UniProtKB/TrEMBL annotation:
It comes from the Bacteria. This is GNAT family N-acetyltransferase. It comes from Tissierella simiarum. Pfam families: Acetyltransf_3. Signal peptide: none annotated.
Length: 173
């Protein structure tokens, strides 16, 4: 599969913002950024040496198709980060692109940062995201309701630093 992770640029941020304003994408992915201006500020913050986020853009067959990033990087206490991945080219959903990008990116993040695990949230009705996380080696740890929406929390552990997750439990909050 012809997938390349590249360095994010300001142009990527603007394209990503525009492409993710789609109603279906907004319904499936829990975005917290409310404006292009906010997205650009967060991008500039990610370029700083002590940044708590790190991201790449996903190219498939030479075409920019989505973003993958980690945020809330904590190398001191929790030794973890959170993951987000969005393929905004809907005609490519279900093709395994996000799964392969996630596998490569998780290895890169574990090598780049002193963390032991990566977490990821998704809505319980986002079967594509659930499938990609499971195929990439993430284990479901929790199910909860927030703002009336059922969501699931997954984790993957760095097998070079700690043992793998063995417990699979569901908890409603």
């Amino acid at each position: 599969m012809d997938i390349i992770l590249k360095t994010r640029t300001k142009d990527h941020v603007m394209i990503f913002w525009e492409r993710t304003q789609d109603e279906e994408i907004r319904r499936l992915f829990p975005f917290s950024i409310e404006s292009l201006e906010e997205a650009l500020i967060l991008f500039e913050e990610s370029l700083k040496e002590d940044a708590l986020s790190y991201g790449k853009v996903i190219y498939f067959e030479g075409r920019y198709v989505g973003d993958i990033w980690c945020y809330g990087i904590d190398e001191s206490n929790e030794k973890m980060s959170m993951l987000s991945v969005v393929i905004f080219e809907k005609d490519l959903w279900g093709k395994g692109i996000a799964t392969e990008a996630t596998k490569v990116f998780a290895k890169e993040v574990f090598n780049k940062f002193d963390i032991e695990k990566i977490g990821a949230f998704t809505y319980s009705n986002n079967y594509g995201s659930i499938s990609l996380l499971e195929k990439a080696g993430f284990i479901k740890v929790d199910t909860f309701v927030e703002n009336g929406i059922e969501s699931e929390y997954f984790e993957i552990r760095n097998n070079n630093k700690v043992g793998s997750i063995r417990n699979n439990h569901t908890v409603a909050r």
